[in-house]
Design goal:
- This protein is of the alpha/beta class.
- It has one domain: Ribonuclease Z/Hydroxyacylglutathione hydrolase-like (Metallo-beta-lactamase, Chain A, 4-Layer Sandwich), CATH 3.60.15.10.
- It is built from 10 helices and 15 strands.
Length: 382
């Protein structure tokens, strides 16, 4: 079984799939932007997920993770997945998943307006009430308050749902480098104490950031799965990780880049610098922790040309890319943009010799008999 990570060409939107040694599939975010009104995205994310499940002879996803509930991370989820909280979202053609991963902010936030975000929140709250099929990342006071005041459950305690909660500095239960999947997940974000300091949910800064270790043939391949955090949050992650003696948990061979190549991840106040100059702790993370031959994947549109109409304040930022590109070139690595090949995933394979980029022709799902099965994948992992 080939262990792979694939990021999909969805414009400035996110979805990344990780296939473990034993064939389990974990999907981080789902934004099927090709189905959005007026979209110029040609990639069909739902079909890709289904085709891969059939090719891998899997009946569904092991994990569906939403790093946060912005629309570009959850769009069209309500039309695709089998949700436990509503019988109207349980038709036989929907994709099931064993476990849902969400940040605590996805539970406690009020006033959501995006229809898919509201559905994901309802599902997360339903599973947390039941105490099964969910991992909630971080345990801020707001989560404790929500559990205690939840009318539908009659009130719960943080302790009663401790088995559903994972905090920064911990490993996600159910995965190990030593089991058949060969992978473990170390949590860097959300930071509970930062949420306690804020009166309102700040989705980007309260989102999930993970360090993944994938062991193949005795070799550890390291992946940093970034979401949309900015340089302030990254600084706190680095400081906390160093303080606890876990600097190795920020080493990376593959970086799924933060916030669609925004300058804010390097330096939230560095809009005018060309190239963007990272703040000290982010500079360390980028320059000292990335390996020789490493790969950076920017889930974004093409990097704009200087002076073009797209060369503006919205990511992807040309000035930020002007920092990453020579950094990767100098260490024999790659800087890759998902929309550089708009119809094909950007795929990395993990091997006993390290990570390698897989061209689209080699990364395509191999379906038994050369044809996808006629019935859709509908349930959790085997």
């Amino acid at each position: 079984m080939s262990t792979r990570l694939a990021s999909f060409p969805l414009g400035n939107a996110d979805s990344t799939r990780l296939v473990l040694n034993d064939g389990r599939r974990l999907l981080f975010d789902f934004a099927d932007m090709g189905k959005s009104s007026g979209s110029d995205i040609i990639f069909n994310l739902e079909d890709e997920i289904r085709d891969d499940l059939r090719a891998g002879k899997r009946s569904g996803l092991s994990v569906l993770c939403y790093t946060h509930l912005d629309g570009d991370h959850c769009s069209h989820s309500k039309d695709t997945f089998w949700f436990e909280h509503s019988s109207t979202l349980q038709s036989k053609d929907r994709i099931k998943f064993d476990e849902l991963w969400v940040p605590a902010a996805a539970i406690v936030e009020t006033g959501l307006t995006h229809p898919d975000a509201k559905i994901v929140q309802k599902e997360a709250r339903h599973r947390l009430r039941a105490g099964a099929g969910i991992k909630v990342f971080s345990s801020p006071k707001g989560l404790e308050d929500w559990l205690r005041n939840d009318a539908k459950s009659g009130g719960l305690t943080l302790e009663s749902r401790e088995h559903c909660i994972v905090n920064a500095g911990e490993l996600v239960p159910g995965f190990s480098k030593m089991d058949t999947g060969g992978s473990e997940f170390f949590v860097h974000c959300p930071l509970s104490w930062r949420q306690d300091e804020n009166d309102d949910v700040i989705r980007n800064e309260d989102s999930i950031v993970l360090h993944v270790t994938v062991r193949v043939g005795g070799r550890d391949n390291r992946v940093l799965l970034g979401s949309d955090v900015n340089s302030d949050t990254l600084t706190e992650i680095v400081k906390s990780t160093k303080r606890h003696g876990n600097a190795a948990r920020l080493e990376w061979d593959v970086l799924k880049l933060f916030h669609h190549c925004s300058y804010k991840a390097l330096n939230k106040d560095g809009k005018e610098d060309d190239p963007t100059k990272p703040v000290p702790h982010v500079k360390w993370l980028m320059e000292d922790q990335g390996s020789q031959g490493s790969i950076i994947i920017s889930s974004s549109r093409k990097i704009p040309a200087k002076g073009s109409t797209d060369d503006n304040d919205q990511p992807p930022h040309r000035k930020a890319s002007n920092y990453y590109k020579p950094l990767q070139s100098n260490r024999g690595g790659r800087f890759m943009v998902t929309m550089d090949e708009p119809g094909k995933p950007t795929t990395v394979e993990f091997t006993s010799s390290g990570v390698r980029y897989l061209p689209a022709a080699l990364a395509a799902p191999a379906v038994a008999g050369g044809q996808a099965a006629a019935s859709p994948a509908r349930s959790g992992s085997e």
